[in-house]
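#random but structural
TW: two for the price of one
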Amino acid sequence: MMITLIKSWFNTHFSHPDAMLIILFILLGTLVLYFFGGMLAPVIAAIVIAYMLEGLVQYFFHRGLSRNFAVILSFAIFLTALLFVVIGLVPVVSKQVSSFLDDLPKIVTQGKDFLQNLQVEYPNLLNVEQANSLVASIASELTSLGQSVLSLSLASIPFVITALIYFLLVPLLVFFFLKDKFLLLDWINTFLPKEKRVLQTVWKDVDNQIGNYIRGKFYEIVIVGFTTFGAFLFLGLSYATLLGVLVGLSVVVPYIGAAVVTFPVVIAAYLEFGFSVDFGWVIGVYALIQALDGNVLVPILFSDVVNLHPVAIIVAILIFGGLWGFWGVFFAIPLATLVKSLLAAWPTQGGFAEAS
């Protein structure tokens, strides 16, 4: 009886030729990214940027410019922004990172004094052994962090070479992805079967959502990053630029990113102000920015893109991040949307489902 039910279910959902085609593409894509994802990272980065710039190209195109001129203008804007990041932002952030790491040992001294005072005022709450153990643990973690930074600096030459490769290859790939977009899509189409109704249905849905998601995520990074930088600069925080970059980039990973970046924000505020009113202002403003991002900005930017439960988003981040690292985390929501669209449009023995 059980075998008959399984056979019936399999025939209903996997007997259609398009179902086999979808499974083949999923397996092929997974294997390529898993084994060659590192080598293809510049290509993936260029595709992400091209998706982001396509909206700008369409904006200029719909205002009367030719496709080629719209591509050139959009690419020029991209290069200007890239030069600003490399020449203007990276040196400032690098300097603040070094300063932040130099100031970290102060936490041990300040923390020891704080625990000693706490032990004097509340002897029943914390004894001397516990206080010393806690301070030793903090010092050990800071030492490990310093060793990690040192090992990173020793490997700086390979990092510089990789950065140069990205700096040269990625813009070139972005230009050709934009310029020859339709030519490349037609070339890919020659390898696909003529009958591909489900693939077309899913691709139309996912292509639109991925493009909107990437552009929306870029806007979110810029808005959150600049807002954080401006607020922390106004509050007198020395690491405003570094924290603005970190908080801006943290939105790439929903929920988890905000939780992780909270630690450097708290540490930087404590190093600057200690436990004071100003410290409370920094934490309060940071909490307000996170609340506005999650409850106002995200619904505005992604109302038509992300329709997934938070549990589904977290599971997608864990699964795709485990498979493909950073790019898996970045594309976790679009990939989860792809899975949802595939399930909605999956061909059955009786015909096709309609993608939602």
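TW: number two ↓
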Amino acid sequence: MRFLFWATLVVLVLVRIFLTKPAYPERKRVRVTATVKEEPIKYDYQQKLNLRGLKVFLPKFPEISYGDKVTVEGRVKEGKLEDAKLVSLEKSRGLLANVRGKIIDFYKKSFPEPHASLIAGVTLGAKGEIPPLFWKDLTETGLAHVVVASGSNVSLVGGFLLGVFTLFFARRVVIPLILTAIWIYAALAGLEAPIIRAAVMGSIAFSAQALGKLSSAWRALLLAALVMLIVKPEWARDLGFILSFVATSCLILFQGRIEKFLKKVPDILREGLSTSLAAQIGVSPILLVTFGQFNLLSPIANALVLWTVPLIMAISGTAGLLGLVAPSLARLILYLAYPLTSWFIFINTLFAK
């Protein structure tokens, strides 16, 4: 039965991939209407969106946000929409999108740049708010993954809530609450491939706990990949999807071994360094082939800042939610993150090429 289950999933994935045809004819002019599911990336004079499998570049204004509904028109060429024109823009009225927007605005009003965008990125994956020059430095130092919501964010949310909820509720109530919170956070952070992968894996792990069964990391990772590809087969060609699964696989394979090898490294740096080195084993060749660049000092830069991420996320997440009802008090809490973001920015500047 177990073999039949996995074989069925693999067959479904293959069928979905091979039967999924390009949605748009090459070099034809099309009009696309879609809700923005990923945070747009803002540049000096333009903004980049991913709409229904197409990369779309539009003028910087009017600004488009996660959750907005847009209609664009242009000519399809190699997965891009050339000469794209914004036909209509309907700002999001969804509850989660509005909450996300208010939290990001609170960060921007409380801290100068790039501190505000760093906090928004670490906490909610709001990479669209990051200044272009700061983003360039993050890419060069190999720290860009830290300010894009990923599996570590979901793990932190799940672990934190597990500790809090078990103080007040029975275990049979705690797991459904955590699963609900994980998917609410995934929606707040933008339903991109790494976040969905982490949410699926987290859901499997916590459900296994509720059923009293041990959850294999490999089975959870494979199940997450197959389910995601059945739902959205075009992710098989998505770089973010590929990097997410490769990095997670390398963490499962190598992190424990590397951490033992680095046993003489101070505790505050050991986990970050071992995590970074393990992930880079698989990710670095892909980045080198795709973008033609890789910073050899990236693991060191990661080790020096990764310890700040859980603290920044805990402080800014708490302050962001409190800021919805008591901004003044929330701002006092948020100030606790300023030394941490200052250290992060200093390291990023120091290691940038």
